[in-house]
UniProtKB/TrEMBL annotation:
NCBIfam families: EYA-cons_domain (TIGR01658). It is found in: Nucleus. This is Eyes absent homolog. Binds 1 Mg(2+) ion per subunit. It comes from Scyliorhinus torazame. Mg(2+) binds at D112, D114, D340. One of its GO terms (molecular function) is protein tyrosine phosphatase activity. Its EC number is 3.1.3.48. Residues 60-105 are annotated as: Disordered. It holds the Pfam family Hydrolase. It catalyses: O-phospho-L-tyrosyl-[protein] + H2O = L-tyrosyl-[protein] + phosphate. It comes from the Eukaryota. The keyword Transcription regulation applies. Keywords: Activator, Developmental protein, Hydrolase, Magnesium, Metal-binding, Nucleus, Protein phosphatase, Transcription, Transcription regulation.
Amino acid sequence: DYSYAGFGQGQYAQYYNNSPYPSPYISNNNSPTTPSTATTYQLQDIPTVTSQAVTDSATGEFGTIHSSSTSIKDAESDRLRRASDGKSRGRGRRNNPSPPPDTDLERVFIWDLDETIIVFHSLLTGSYANRYGRDPPTSVSLGLRMEEMIFNLADTHLFFNDLEECDQVHIDDVSSDDNGQDLSTYNFATDGFHAAATSANLCLATGVRGGVDWMRKLAFRYRRVKEIYNTYKNNVGGLLGPTKRESWLQLRAEIEALTDSWLTLALKVLTLIHSRSNCINILVTTTQLIPALAKLLLYGLGIVFPIENVYSATKIGKESCFERIIQRFGRKVVYVVVGDGAEEEQASKKHTMPFWRISSHSDLMALHHALELEYL
């Protein structure tokens, strides 16, 4: 159990500087206030890493937050029914294959990925281990193993060899070039896409686009990626196969142990937001789109991030991604940015969005606490 002394409502003001949104729990001068009396809140049921958590044979998931509340499950089922199935078969849907935003949407949480939801880069550098008194060589080894698994999944199942130089911001960005052809018997290995892309440098940052036939083949690949993500986001072990599944579960358990259940805490927050019919999780990451999708699958985050809610800022930057998200959901909803870096903080200020900084476990727990008390 984690306790917070003096955890008054004014303590949240530090996360909401420059916020245009009126709120009863933010002081008028946007500065933290000191509560008149010390109050202690208990954060109950913080999940711990157990052997049962890493051996869920039904789904191959680890760290997923299970709740006895049927209302959460019902809301999740309802959200999944509304989500896109990713199978754009006919021409009628191809220009807008992802579903429109819910009309009852009130709040959009825009998340960073690395060092916010998952500990990844700081594992590879050993900085996390140094900060928290862990063994740096062990940390680096775990990071390298996960990095290898990410790119192996991206190359083997998500066409990263073909798409690395053809990176897109969003999974649907080339869907208008898709003619809806049935891909069940399509042979991606022999359609000549990769050779054409390599010889003509069609995917480089010059903005040069290939011909109609080549662009259609590109769109086919992104459609298949979408189908694979939607099919296996609840069953990553089925995608990996039995041997790699065991290695994956073991690696996930070791990373969770080293990072003091960082991902489990983040998932608890994400799952709570996802369970609300009027809230939504959006991901904006500087990782390229295909490796980002591989990360989401391997870290068990596919259920809280439908593929149409994932944006890669590699080419256009986070500020431009935020502009796209505003265009998609409109200006009537409240946007809350959750991240650890300067880029997302600056982008949030540019668009006058509240920013919740994540720099430690306590920041994730405080965010969950604020959500539970319905401050957010």
